[in-house]
Amino acid sequence: MTLAFAIRLAEASDLEALTEMVAADPHGTWTRASLEHELTLAWSHMVVAVDSQGVVAGFMVYWHTAGEVELLNIATSPTFMRQGVARTLMAHLLEAATRLGAPRVMLEVRAGNLPARSLYDSLGFVVVGTRKGYYAGEDALLMDRAAPAAGGTPSESGR
Ligand SMILES: CC(C)(COP(=O)(O)OP(=O)(O)OC[C@H]1O[C@@H](n2cnc3c(N)ncnc32)[C@H](O)[C@@H]1OP(=O)(O)O)[C@@H](O)C(=O)NCCC(=O)NCCS
Predict the structure, then answer these.
(1) Which of 28, 79, 104, 134 has the CA that lies 20 to 30 A from 53?
(2) Does 38 qualify as catalytic in the annotation?
(3) Residue nearest to atom 22 of ligand 1 (CA)
(4) Does any domain span residue 24?
């Protein structure tokens, strides 16, 4: 089931909900302190996806630095999984990259994170490198894709 979610900038008042979200991921390393730190960085963009009632369903952090856009984290609240939250956030990320003039979007994913890999594969990201044993012995995959052409759709890979 895919519902409509709106994207807005994260605020300090979202930190409690976001902390619960990162704590729900057994492989995650982020904490409330990491989230708070991101809010202080000029190059860091933290956005949340909210449902029609304003409930925070997911969030994403990406960096725009040295002309590049990199996804740092994305997570959906356990109660909103498989409803299109991450897909909505990723569409926002790709649109942001185009708007910011970044040629490519990069990210890193744990090799065994099949839900996330399926999401990134479906959006045209491809593996461009591996960091052996980066996540507690498990490989990290570096993935990227071209930002969509201005006026195009986020699903267009543009490779
Ligand atoms: C990965 C994650 C963000 C997906 O969030 P979501 O809102 O449930 O995803 P969506 O509903 O938007 O689904 C988009 C696509 O992701 C993939 N996907 C999501 N959950 C999946 C699952 N359990 N198994 C397989 N594929 C899955 C599918 O390709 C899906 O497309 P489809 O529904 O058309 O099949 C979520 O599982 C999560 O928060 N995981 C923990 C944090 C994490 O691993 N973040 C990634 C860090 S790199």
Answers:
(1) 28
(2) no
(3) 115
(4) yes
